[in-house]
Amino acid sequence: VGSVKYAKVVLSLDAETVSLLKDGVNFKKDPENGKCYIIYKGTEGFKACRNQCKHQGGLFIKDIEDLGGRTVKCTKHNWKLNLSTMKYVNPPDSFLQDELEVEILDDGGLRLVELSPLDPWLADPREPLQLKEGEVKVTYLTHACMELQLGQRRFMFDPWLKGPAFARGWWLLHESPADALDRLCAADLIYISHMHSDHLSYPTLKVLSERRPDAPIYVGDTSRPVFWYLEQSKVQLTNINVVPFGVWQNVDEHLRFMIMMDGVHPEMDTCIIVEYKGHMILNTVDCTRPNGGRLPQNVDLMMSDFAGGASGFPMTFYGGKYSDSWKATFIKNERKKLLNYKAQLVKSLQPKIYCPFAGYFVEAHPSDRYIKETNVKNGADALNAQINNLTSDIKTWTPKPGAVLDLGLALTDPTNSEAITNPPASAKIYKDNWDFDLYVDELNRAISCEIFKHPNWIQFYYTWAGFQNYNLVVRMIETDDNFEPHPLGCDYLVDFLDLSFPTTIPDREHSYLELKNRVGVMRHVVVHGGLWDDLYIGFQNRISRDPDIYHHK
Hints:
The chain is of the alpha+beta class. It is built from twelve helices and 31 strands. It has three domains: 5-118, 3-layer Sandwich (Rieske Iron-sulfur Protein); 134-421, Ribonuclease Z/Hydroxyacylglutathione hydrolase-like (Metallo-beta-lactamase, Chain A, 4-Layer Sandwich); 436-546, Nonspecific Lipid-transfer Protein, Chain A (2-Layer Sandwich), CATH 3.30.1050. An eight-stranded mixed sheet has the order 17-16-15-13-12-11-26-27. Strands 18-19-20-21-22-23-25 form a seven-stranded mixed sheet. A six-stranded antiparallel sheet has the order 1-10-9-4-3-2. The radius of gyration is 25 Å and the shape is globular. It starts with a strand and ends in a 7-residue tail after the last strand.
């Protein structure tokens, strides 16, 4: 399926315009639709691409720091693209830009041609059938967890229903309905979008494995397997199905689904289209550029993340420019950019109904109060208001835990107040008790593990991890909850160029990172071979870097 491509001419220039193209970077706009392109004229001829950054779709401008006239810089996050190689140079070692074919015509004119695969959801299209009241119901449970009732079947997305995520950094904001775990255990299909613990929650799945280990779970065929940790976790699940991207999976005559990959994190992130009787529900989850930015128009229901704040940057950074006021300004601007990006994306896709979700977490542990106060997130209502300002054709829904959308009613009459059933007024919306000690004590038990009595555990661990041949020196300080050195903690250097463990900082030129990691979380990650995302996305460390650049690797 992937090899079928169709060619589309996206821009034509006449001979005179071509003769006026200067060496290096040329920005060109299609006068008809306003779309922007970049044409690079080099010694080898022409190269071209869309004027669109691969990260979040920002526009490129000339990079004034580049005297060679080859690179452009994105106005959103300062990513840089070298047009002579079509490689991104900031962040280094990261992405390739998608190129357009350049056709030179006999009369000296030029055409830019885009080769695109056919959109996979258009394979075998189905006419939408009328939905009865009660036939398709969408229930919001908490965070990114939705239950879809589609005729006789129940499909659940990303169940995180108990315990923390990212070690001990994220806790559920919303109190899910009392029967949420029962619903999970009764689901006919469960989709887990990616390996992060606010979507793949082992405390939640432990309950499922005890009650129904053969529940059918579906994940995309990412190069980093979603369930890489399953054996270690001791959670017994026996019906995990890895599904190829971009292919309809038929469940029964009316129900099918398709999993697609993310353009920015294809090794990890996925999104999904579910179709019932010709009605499409699109869930882009956490994808930065879902399906590389190609998505179906006019779906019946679209849901996506919206909140931001799902990263340690810049809250956990110290030194240099990272004052509280710089962070506050940066976060405010960053959230605004994200809100605009999501609103424009929704407007461009014109779904009939839109629901923001997957941003409902809180840094509830008392030791993370600074993060909770600094890491201001977008509100779902603010995004919906912005969408309603841009267009009047999209019905927006801010879900409360336990709220139910009846898709048939909402499509027949978007103004029908009975299309959405909210939880009773007495229902508890926000969580106020998280069993902190239960989970934090378990992490801290790692501190006294036998392995840490051996001084060579450090060398053993980093050799096992295998990251090297990169000019980076890291100082690692194990700390208490306040990021002060822990009495039992280690303080050591790792030189990743040759994977050595020097006692003093090398005197050659190198990138330097200083990490202060909470000892319980760090050692739990070491013992279990876990992801450093637990430390970074979970706000469990403090970071200083010199020079202050982002290392994509």
